[in-house]
Amino acid sequence: MNKFLLSLAISSTIACNAFAAPIKLLPIGDSITQGRSAKGPESPATFSYRYPLWQLFVDAGIDVDFVGSMKGGFEGDPAWDDYKSKPFDRDHEGHWGWSPASVGDQFPKWVKGYAAPDIALILLGTNDADKPEAIPTSVSAHRGMIQALRSRNPQVSILIGLPFQEWKPFPEMRQAYQKLAAELNSPVSRVIAVDHSKDWLSAPTSPEADTVDWIHPSSKGDKKIALNWFAALKPLLAQKGSAPSGK
Fold it and tell me: ∠ CA 171-177-178 to the nearest 5 degrees?
C-alpha cells in the first residue's frame, strides 16, 4: 500500500472510532423524558421521546447505548415493546416533576455513576414556568450540567432542547437557551439548540394535538421530538464516522 492509501486508511479508522461503539447517549429531563404508565382515561400512558428515538437508531443501524441512573417510567412503565427483535434500552436521566435547578443540583453526582456520555440531550424548563426567576435559574442549571458533562468527557456533544410550549415564559426561555448554546458551543465539544416548538400544537382538544394534557406529549408529539433530535444528531454522527446508513 502506498503512503497516500495508508494515510487514508488510518484517517478513516480514526474517524470511525471517534465514537467508540456503542455511542453512549444520555437523555436528561423531566416527565417529558421519563414517561409513565397509564392511570386511566384521564391519565393515558406517555412513552417519552426516548422510545421512538431509539427506534430511529435501530432503523439506521447505529449502535447506541442509552445511559443514566433511571430505568423506569413514573409510577410504572408504558408498553415499551421490543422493536425488530431488540429490547428497548431504558436507561435515562428523566425525573418527573423536577425543575432544571433540582436536576442540576443532583446531576454532578449522577453522571459519575455511569459511562461517560458521548452525546447528551437536555430537555428541561417546563417545571420552572411559574417561577419569577424561571429563565435565569434554568439557564444557570443548564450551564452547570454542561460543565459536569465536560468534566466526564471533554469532547461530549450536547443538544439543548428548546421547550415546545406556546405560552409565556417559553418563547423567552427558547431565546435564552439559544443564546447559551451559542456561547458554550466549541469545535471540540458541540452545544447545539434544537427547536421542538416548530409546528407544535399543545391543545389536547384538537385532533392534531401533540400532547395528551397540554404538557405531556402524545405518541405523535414524542415522534416529532425524536425526529427533531435525530435530524440534529445526523451531522454530528457523520463528523464522528457514525452516519446513519441511508436513512
Answer: 90
C-alpha 139/C-alpha 161 separation (Å) is 12
Q: 213-222 contacts: CB < 8 A, separation 24 or more? A: 213/43, 215/31, 215/32, 215/126, 215/165, 216/31, 216/32, 216/36, 216/46, 217/32, 217/46, 217/48, 217/49, 218/46, 219/47, 219/52, 221/164, 222/46, 222/47, 222/48, 222/49, 222/51, 222/52
Q: How many CB atoms lie within 10 A of CB 73?
A: 22
pLDDT at 6 over 80: no
Q: How confident is the model at residue 12 (pLDDT cuts 50, 70, 90)?
A: very low
Distance (Å) of CA 5 to CA 2, 11, 205, 239: 6, 10, 61, 21
Residue 208 exposure: Cα atoms within 13 Å on the Cβ side: 3
Q: What is the largest CA-CA distance in the chain?
A: 68
* Alpha carbon distance 237, 6 (integer Å): 24
**Confidence (pTM):** 0.89
DSSP code at position 216: S
